[in-house]
Amino acid sequence: MTTATGLALSNPPKPSRIVRWPAAGGYAAQAGSLLGCVLFWHLASTHHWHAGFITFANVPAPLEVLAAARELFESPKLWLHLRASLLRVGIGFAIAGVLGVAAGLLIGRFEWARRVLLTPLEVLRPIPAVAWIPLSILVFPSSEASMIFITFVGAVFPILLNTIHGVEGVDPRLTASARSLGAGRWRVFPEVILPAAAPAIVTGLSIGMGTCWFCLVTAEMISGQFGIGYYTWESYTLQNYASIVVGMLLIGVLGMGSSVLIRVIGQRLTPWQRGRA
């Protein structure tokens, strides 16, 4: 190949690729990182480290948390807590997914939808979930509906914004080609817009699921007798610090697992994206 200056390039540069570790090395690094965090936690809590304004004197040690976790897992209330939280997160996330993707497709594609919908949504987006508690209690007839609404609020905006960015990133030549081949305005959505924006939508769904669990404690502060968030908040009111950490870790594991599940499902539904790395 010859450039405009006449210099011959026998080996044109190849596009850069992400350097990936072997699978075994990657798993070892992940396990080592996790063990390092637990070791630091153990040393800091058992030796009551104090650094400036940060102190670990009252932080429960890993063995105390393990004992509290064993007590919870042996309790019949564990399943009741899990069932309540999974139901609230599942319903809130499902509603957020449907409304967030639908609104994102409209706002990203049509100027009239952007002008009508985007400004009110941008005003509502920075409001934290805890600030919605009084209004949700007034608006919804039951505490269960209020808790589902709080999880919905946590999930809908990441889904909405990622869908908008995904639609805006679609190559205009793709839609122009589809229109030139006879596809109508609404037929372009399932055949061009949605497949091209699917990776961004999956990312938004994964982030939205994580924020759904993030808002769970806030949601279950409203009322209720069961739920992982309620268990964590109740442990705080009873000053049972080891159980607080158990609830936090359980929410983290469930949130991470559900987000990973969404990404895996998204990869299976978008096989045309697997070769892009």
Automatic annotation (TrEMBL):
Domain ABC transmembrane type-1: 82-262
Segments traversing the membrane: 21-43, 85-108, 123-140, 147-167, 187-205, 244-266
Subcellular location: Cell membrane
Keyword Membrane appears in the UniProt entry: yes
Keyword Transmembrane helix: yes
Principal place of residence: membrane
A GO CC annotation given for this chain: plasma membrane
PROSITE patterns assigned to the protein according to its UniProt record, in alphabetical order: ABC_TM1 (PS50928)
Record Gene3D superfamilies: MetI-like (1.10.3720.10)
Pfam families in the cross-refs: BPD_transp_1
Membrane topology annotation: Multi-pass membrane protein
GO biological process, any: alkanesulfonate transmembrane transport
Superkingdom to which the source organism belongs: Bacteria
Cited CDD domains: TM_PBP2
Keyword terms of this UniProt record: Cell membrane, Membrane, Transmembrane, Transmembrane helix, Transport
Family recorded in the similarity comment: Belongs to the binding-protein-dependent transport system permease family.
PANTHER family in the cross-refs: ABC TRANSPORTER PERMEASE PROTEIN MJ0413-RELATED (PTHR30151:SF0), ALKANE SULFONATE ABC TRANSPORTER-RELATED, MEMBRANE SUBUNIT (PTHR30151)
Protein known as: NitT/TauT family transport system permease protein
Species in which this protein is naturally found: Silvimonas terrae
